[in-house]
Amino acid sequence: MMRSIHKLLLGTAVATALSTATALADFPDKPITFVTPYPPGGSHSLHAGVITTVAEPYFGQPMISVIRKGGGGVVGAAGVLKSKADGYALLFGDPTINSLRPQVEKLPYTTDDFKAVARINYSPAVFVARADAPFSDLKSMVAYAKENPDKLVYSNDNKNGFTYTVFEMLKFKTGTKMKGIIYGGGGPAVAKVLGGETMAYAGAPSVVGEHIKSGKLKGICTTDFEPWPSLKDVPSCKSLGADLIFHFWRGVVVPKATPEKVVARLSEGFEKLVKDKGFLRLIGKIDSRVDFLGYKEFDKLLKKEQSDLKALYESLK
For 264-295, how does the pLDDT look when each residue is reduced to its tens digit (9 = 90+)? Predict the structure, then answer.
């Protein structure tokens, strides 16, 4: 009797293992969901639209772009985490929801709950002011803020988000007081400064670049080591005396229980995708560029960044 039970259990285990191996070998065999955790109009949704448009040839299945906003990105991240860890639900992550906020806020996930798949690119923040703001460069912006504490009102994306972090860094390094209003994402935030409800903002070149070129916004400075290629007239903050360097990556992560073979297959697909001529053309149209990292290199970057951002946050308190 015991021998029969043992054979039955062994047979079940072997069948399960074979089934799993077959599933991994066939991955993907159905559409993949690509979750953007922020509202439309921001840099994430712009990039997600480009990625999912050209993805199918490199994965053998359609990639469906889904916007799941709320909680400054937390709703989308938590939703992916609740999905089955099989590679069919991907989160389009970034430093704030994957590295900073889980360490400084009580969220329904931690930095250890996700596994790196691929970094697509990164961009700096570009500080901008509305066209009729009473300042046109970093020096006059800082002077205005010092002369008028908390009167310089700027658009914020989310608490501990991209814009929030770089403005906190700017205030810390310049000894100024400015007031941020949170709007829940880059799209709504830039709309408010364009509409005249706030005076300034800091966002990715893909979000603010066209508005600088059209004259609707004034470029103040960028948080890179040098000017962004398409915004050569906007100097780096560092060159103006504010030692402010901050890079905002966009990348793909999955629940940590996702099998490594699936992660490797996804990473391989994205590595091919970012070389696609159509992808590069579309990325260029939204004033972005590629800086790809595969899953192993991206994992190393994440671990270092999580440590660095926690230290930065502590220094800004």
Answer: 999 999 999 999 999 999 998 888 889 999 99
Gyration radius of the chain over CA positions: 22
Say which residue the tokens 């991209």 belong to. 162
Structural domain includes residue 21: no
Per-residue pLDDT tens digits for 66-83? 999 999 999 999 999 999
Inter-helix orientation angle 162-174/295-316, to 10°: 40
Range of the domain at 179: 126-240
Q: Which residue in this structure is represented by tokens 């400075």?
A: 221
Name the E strands within the chain. Answer: 32-36, 63-67, 89-93, 114-124, 126-130, 153-156, 179-182, 200-203, 217-222, 247-255
Q: Which domain CATH number covers 225?
A: 3.40.190.10
Peptide bond into 205 cis (omega under 30): no
| Number of domains within the chain | 2
| pLDDT tops 70 at residue 8 | no
Average pLDDT rounded to a whole number, residues 136-140: 97
Do residues 84 and 133 both lie within one domain? no
Sign of CA dihedral 132, 134, 137, 142: negative
Contacts 24+ apart (CB under 8 A), 234-237: 234/126, 237/127, 237/138, 237/170
Match 């021998």 to its residue by tokens.
3
Q: pTM surpassing 0.85?
A: no
Kindly tell me if the per-residue pLDDT of 261 is higher than 90.
yes
